[in-house]
Amino acid sequence: MAPGVLKGGVLPLRKEVTVWFSRGNSQHARLSELERDVSNLKRSFDQVQQEWDATSTRVTKMLRRIRHEVQRLDEPDEPEVVEGERSLPLTTLGASGDRLSRIRQQLAAKGR
Q: Whose C-alpha in 44, 69, 94, 97 is 20 to 30 A from the C-alpha of 51?
């Protein structure tokens, strides 16, 4: 028989317990390490998710502003003309030649 082995190939109870506890401690340490890693990854992911949400919101606002600016620039400066109703300019008639000559004479008399 090999030293430390009882009949039937079983190790003494004391050594089995020691082996089991040493393996259990290393597994516990590994499990704790994995829990810390998962916790850190979750925290990092949440931070990246918040940053992405903020960036997405800023991009959406900027695109909306650009779209409104493009629409504003594409609109014609002149008001729409409806068939049969034409809008007239503010001064509908120019000064007649006779009136224009009188105005020029009056300005010349005043020295302007």
A: 69
Under 8 Å CB-to-CB from 1, ≥6 apart: which residues?
7
Residue with tokens 């079983």: 10
Mean pLDDT throughout 57-82? 85
C-alpha pair distances (Å), 75 with each of 11, 70, 88: 92, 9, 20
Give the separation between CA 47 and CA 64, rounded to whole angstroms: 26
Average pLDDT of 64-77?
88
What was the pLDDT predicted at 56?
96
Cα 89 to chain centroid, rounded: 47
Q: Are 95 and 103 in contact (CB under 8 A)?
A: yes
Residue type, 80: E
pLDDT value, residue 54: 96
Other CB atoms within 10 Å distance of the CB of residue 49: 10
